[in-house]
Recover the amino acids of this structure.
């Protein structure tokens, strides 16, 4: 004979089901937050790399200008 299910039993089953969903939702939220934190770290690292590369390009431009200035000074016999 099948067991009779009361409203209390049914309410308990539904509650446990929602509790399980709630727990999984919390776990997914934590995982998503970790992923977003990683993206933030990657963005910050990328910005640092861009700044460093900008400085490298600037350094090469200064070297080129210095080389050209020395040639001009040598032709004009300055210095």
């Amino acid at each position: 004979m099948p067991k009779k299910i009361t409203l209390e039993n049914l309410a308990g089953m539904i509650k446990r089901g929602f509790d399980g969903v709630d727990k999984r939702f919390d776990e997914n939220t934590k995982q998503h937050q970790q992923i977003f934190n990683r993206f933030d770290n990657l963005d910050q690292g990328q910005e640092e790399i861009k700044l460093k590369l900008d400085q490298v390009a600037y350094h090469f431009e200064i070297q080129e200008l210095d080389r050209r200035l020395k040639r001009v000074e040598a032709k004009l016999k300055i210095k």
